[in-house]
Amino acid sequence: MSSKEQRRRERRPGRHSKLDQPRQRAPAQSKATTRRPVDTDSEEDERPARVGKPNSTLKRPVPPSPTANRQHLPKRAAPAPTASVNQPTAVTSNPASGLQARSVSTALGQPPLQTSRSQNVGIGQTPAVLEEPRSESEEESSGDDWARVRIEELLDTSDEEAIARERPQGVPDRQELTDEEESQDDEHAQEDRMSVVLSDNEDPDIYNTEDEWEEYDDTIRIIAEEAVPPSKFGEITYTESLLQIWAESNHISVAAFAGFARMVHDPGFNIDEVPYSLKTIKKLRRKLPLDTIHAHIVPVEKLDGDSKTKSTATCYYFDPKDVVKNWLENPQIYSFCHFGLARWSDCVREIFQGWLWRESVLAAISRYPLYTLIDNFKVYLSHVYPGAHLLFTSKKGNIPLRITGVFERLRAKDKQHDETTEAEEYDVWISVNIIVIRRADLDTFSINFETEALTLPKITFDEQVSVYGTSTSTEPITGYLVLYDFVLPLRIVKDLKPTKVFVDRNHHDVDPEAPAESAKTSANYYVSHFLPLEKGSTPKKKKLIDLFGAPKTTHQPTPPTITTRARSQAPERRAPLKPRGLESEKIIVHELVHTRHLRYLLAEDEIRKGEVSMAKLQEDSENGKKHIGVVIDFYTDKFGTFRTTHRSSGGMYSGLNNLNQAGRDQPRNHSLLGFVPNGGSFETAAEPIVTSLRKAARGFPCTTAHEGLGEVTVHVKVLSMLADMAESNGIAGIKSVGCVAPCRFCGLKREQFGLPCFHNKKSTKLKLLRQRHICSRIRRQAFDLKTKKAQEKLLMPHSIHRLPAVMESFGPAFNPFIQTALDTSHAEAKGLGEHAIGIFIDRMLSDNVGKKEFTRCLRAQHFPVGVSRVPNPTAHMRSLKMSEVSLLISVMPFLIKSMNANLKIFNRNVHALYNEREGEVVTTDWIKQQAIGFFLVVARANSAVFSRVIRDPESKLSISTIPTYDDLDERTLEYRTALANIATTLETLPTAGERLAARAPGQAVANRSRTKKVRLDTLETLPNFHTGVHSAENARLYGTNANVDSPIKERVHGLYKNLVPHTNYVEMDLAFCKYWNVMNAIRKVNDKSICAVNHPMQKSLARMPRNSDEGAYSINNEGPSSVLRMKELVRFPDYRFGSLIGKHERKKLNLDATIFNKPVGSRMIQGLWSAYTSYDYPYAHFPLTGFERDVGKLQWWQSVNVYDEGTESKLRIKPGQVIAIREEKDPEKADGYAVVIGICTHQPFGSDYDHLFFYVRWLVKDRPDPDMGGLMRYRLESIESAANSTHTKSSEWFNYVGLPSISKRKTPHFAQDAEAPNFYWLNEYFISSSL
User: Cα(938)–Cα(943) distance, rounded to whole angstroms?
Assistant: First the structure.
């Protein structure tokens, strides 16, 4: 050892290499491993090869354990003499050089990486690891090698002691092996490992105190693939040669070849029927039930292409009517659809539970017409539909009502009868706005004004109005509409009469069919202003039900009968009590708003457009004709691959909103409509599609998959259109995001964006909303001007186009300012989410220490099994996907928490800034806590914005984890406030690029592409910042924001987006349409659609191997798990097992496979008996304590994949994963949580089936953690403490659970504490998306 190295080790005691310590036992060398001997006299290549970062040569890195994070390669020392490459290899080490063999896994502090071949790598070459071809089960278990590390972390000493006590006598444990057995064990473990030649001067640090990467001495010598000598070539058949040449030359994937092999080995496959030309195969498409592909010529607007660019292009598309027919004729789709009225629910999940569905007649046309009628007589008084007006009979006097929605609500069960029917019964309800016409009505509904002097005109009432709502004046009675939705069942208003109410929009309505001024004089009531409710109002939603009854008046006394006398005298004997809950009822009004800011309901637009006629519906109902409403969405997006080139093509898609949430989450249920050709615009390409949708809204005949329904008239309702922000503005007729007022929902100017607009009064927000009739009036004023310049000058402050958009011009009834939905993924995740992460990484973290420490924590973070690799935002910020941004935000608090505060992770400017602001010296821990608090606010807001379930405010449920619409509004405001505050604080700090430019100007350009540029001074003026004002309202209209989010549609779009870069600029629109047409036709045949009944291909499709047919079960078809015969469960039809854990690995993991000779009272026997009860066996049904041949053994597996029919999703379970266990005795009780230690199967004596079990350790609540925003902290119970637990039922604490015990609810994310591995945080704000 050199003197310099000796002095360095004296300065850093305790940090020397473990290789310097004497080894107690040398491991046996692998037969396939060779080493290059060191020749001290050789002068060839005296410069030692340099190695970069640790793990850089491993193809499949293994997650390091917390105790092995700092075991790495040796530090660079003096150049050592190297051996000649021409010298023969040997397996002995050179004592003179001090070199000795050591496995790669030991050097890196990680579990060994399995390989079967190895060879020497020359000096200076990049080492690599190539994997041997694996079986199907091994392919599925890819990445399972780190299971041993996770299990060793989870098992503590108490667990080992408990297992040792249960081990039968005479069977030695891991510490009791004899020397011979131990040597054999080492030889067996060493056979599959790779040996390396390392320097004796090893330093276990990954980087020094200055956080600089250390340089290393010798290159790792790994045999990647050993050359085969000619004597061992063996024989190869002619078929094998052809298959190998074909597969290698055509780059056939593993999945494609597996499908080819299954097809060839199918008993019905006839090789004589295989044609020699692919064209023959493609001609078979004409025998499929294909749809017609239409085309039309569109002008090319962008002429900046190449020399082959033409002035016109061909647009290919499908007729939306054909797409709708495909959905309705498919029984696999139709059976999961909802056709009818909107439904009220305590927890809103589906889109038909949103408010827009209530407003539409087309969406629920199968339930119309609805009437108010006289009891016992079929005398129809009035049609009930959104937009109609009724005169409500109240105890305080008759009140005019405006119906705003019709929905159904589950009927309450009759408590007098215990018998209940399986079919749920619903009552029809309506939501209404009241129109106050008397001053007394203000007191009846507790309407209070914030200011005594309201803005003109003041509220004035006709004092001559009677309690019956009539007046002696010939003029209509003036009323004021209260903008709040009261609800009442239709059975209460069934005998109410209709009334005429004129809502004054004449001055702002340019529709030729708008009511004329004479309509005012013929109406009974006139409304020109409405009263919006401000924050703090607490109205009673069912107030009208309490007020229902005949009005009391002295002008019409009650007849003097005994019964009525008793009723009239009863209230006089009692004290004049106020209505129940009157003290808590309050409606706060800030100002009157003119009705020009009151938007039309969807039903009003449909009637005005001629799509719905109540008289026609009544006639068809009497004649027995049936109608069905099909609700769809329309999505468009461009292929971003060619945004920087001459191409600008894109796709158009549609989804069926009648499907439930699980059905809409499947990309196959979304259909292609067509493509926007290169150079064309969406306006011209979509014109024939939009025109067809307008015709489809009026109805067309179609046959459905419903048995006995026959032919019906189908009406198509376009409920929403989706696109990114720029394209959405174009659909709404608004200019691009750089205009004066870029928001398509409101007309607020860009310079007014920011936090103040979130605090505006409700009345102010309503006046700022864009209205279609107001924009039409502005366009009409612009058309009256002579010059185009004058027109643009008039339109510029409003940021609207001269011509309305294509949907408004050629399409069905459509309000572009509310039906062009907010895409929260683009706005929140890709918009502000990137800025939030970029601020932390670019402004706060130090360039070397901080970013490398963040990278270390990111690699050590245990994500759920369903989450693939997450890109490192310190280097790939610009390439993050929307789902990756949301995922990172939800785990950022835990990543920051695990960062080492003893290092200089924040740059000095951050410390100086906070020291100046706080007036004292702040620590790194304090700054860490500020960053954790910020990302907790961001994650909390995102969990509400992207929540798939919203709790109704009127619901009696008190589930704090499910947000309400008010919670969504509050969390969004909290997020924007925190983001604005941190932006204001850090806006003076230089970015990473600016800091790099100051140190090395030549590297500034290279760094610019690594992270997204964040301009904090203009952050509040971004449209994505402002869209948070409309997020809660968007969720209320569509049920949840997730119902109109774009990720699923992005996946469909990605099918073609990923192919476009490989088309070599060739127009592939027609080829893509044909591909979709063929695949869709095959699905028709497979799903037995009406149009493909008795198709010849159905027999062939029925013979194709699938995971499992309906009612059947499947398992691995090769490997050790293929011999298993699993217990058939309806909920879990498919099983896919990973690799089988061998005997030697089980010993290391303390997984016991033997059951015989265990005492009856042991935790293992008791746990298995308890787990068998989940399979509906009695307790202790199977004998588990007899001889080995009777009780069998446990087989342990690396992982298991199952398909859950209950949730219609796949589950992948591995050791170290947290699973939710349901409570069998009390389903309403909250689920329990446990960490999987092992996965085993067992076939008991007396049964022909194998059963799947999980060996677990339970998680119990510890306390809310104030440092993590009050997140619940869980403690990992040891096996010993679980056995002795007395605070809960002992059966719940057995360490074996059966597969049926897994809860149907989604398992939340648990984040492990890096400082205390036995503790976990329940991450309530975790968001995992597959998009």
Answer: 9
